[in-house]
Structure formats: C-alpha cells, structure tokens
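Weekly structure sync, notes
Attendees: PL (lead), two postdocs, one rotation student
Agenda item 3: pending single-chain targets
PL asked that the sequence for the first pending target be pasted directly into the notes so everyone works from the same version. It is reproduced below exactly as submitted, 255 residues in total.
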Amino acid sequence: MKKLLQVKHVEKYYGNKNNLTKAIDDISLSVNSGEFVAIMGASGSGKTTLLNCIATIDRVTSGNILIDGEDITTLKGNNLNKFRREKLGFIFQDFNLLNTLTGYENIALALAIQNISAKEQNDKIKAIAKTLGIEKILDRYPYQMSGGEKQRVASARAIVTNPKIVLADEPTGALDSKSSKALLETFERLNQTLGSTILMVTHDAFAASYASRVIFIKDGKIFSELNRGDDSRKTFFDNIIDVITLLGGNLNDAC
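Predicted structure, written out during the meeting:
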C-alpha cells in the first residue's frame, strides 16, 4: 500500500536559546493511502504541534514531511498555497464556517477557489451532501444549524475537493455525544466508502476507536501504537484505554 504521508525525524523547537522548548522530539511515522489514523496524547505532548506542521500551519525546525511524494517543508509562497488548495482538507474543532454564507455556499467556496465551473460545483456538492446526509440543510446559515450539522458541513467542505489527506483537529471537541457519534460514523463512511485518508488528533478514546490505527505521543516522542486489525470497536476502545493508563493519564487530561 502506498505511503501517502511520511514524517521523517521531525523536531520542533519554540523560544530562543535562553528559553528553548522542544515540542517534537525526532518523530518519524507514516500513513498509508486510505488509512484512518488517530493521534492521542496528554496536554503538551506535541500532538497538535505535529498536526500543525503536517497541515503547513507551522514549520518544522528540522526533519522532513512528505505528502504524496512532495516534501512540504520546502514549499513557500504560491507553491505552498497551491499545495494547500489541492492536496489538503481541514476540519477544525470550531467549524470555521462563514456565517454570512449558507451551507451550500460554504462548501462551494472550496471549489470556487480552484476555479471549478458552477455546474461541476453543483454536481460535487450534491454528491457529497448525499453521502453525508446534509441535503436538507444546504440552504441554512450556520446560525440555523446544530453543532453536529455545522461539523458535517465543514467535513463536506474539506472532502469535496478530493484532497489527498484530511486533517482533523479535535473534530468532536465542541459536540455533544450524539453529534460526535454521528460525525465519527461520517468519517468512517468517508474512509470506507470514498477511500479518504484521515489523520485525526483527538483527546477522546471513543473517537479514536473509530480509526484503524492510533498513535500515542508522550513528551514529543511516539510512545506506542495500536492497530485495530479485526478487533471490534469495543475491544479496540478497551485497548486504547489500557494505553492511556500506561501514559499516566485519563480521558479528562489526555487532551
């Protein structure tokens, strides 16, 4: 299976030589095309910093990150913007929808940036709306939607451009349990039906149990890794809890 994401000996420091903090300490990992991978770790472990570096929101201090064979640590300016538009999909905890646009228009914006024709935009939006079950809310504004509906619209916006990888930062953090379950089932469907590659940072073992693999980070280093294999989601959840216990945390502080 093709390695879509490769993180090679990445380090990230913050501060100056008099007050230096190492957020990521020589991390190497890979994600195959079509995988659904979760990253977990206690507060300050470096997991969000790692995701931000992969998302090109932050830059590594040393090491390399390759997506679809391209070293993103060397990209700048227009090349970086083009890469973000065409290869990455983002799903954030706070949705990041534009309140002055309807659900349809929020999704269409991602396509318009790529100069896709209005007809093709409409076809793509209808298809992804059907997959995510949001056809009935496309004409609503974000203030007319529930948290779960907003996050599904945000997911549609991230997926509709057919990115190489979808990066999700605590996507269930602002949702109630019912909406969280619905969103995670959506992720599962995107992964299994459309073959979307998803990398999700989460503090929630329940959310992580929907992934096919979980990578645990402690003090900027990879602590452990779990593969779901043929296990049921319940068994996988229990295994995740066991590792969290070894990390020295619980579900409330593993964030």
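Discussion points:
- The chain has one domain: 3-247.
- Residues 3-247 form a domain with the Rossmann fold fold (CATH 3.40.50.300).
Action: rotation student to compare against the earlier draft before next sync.
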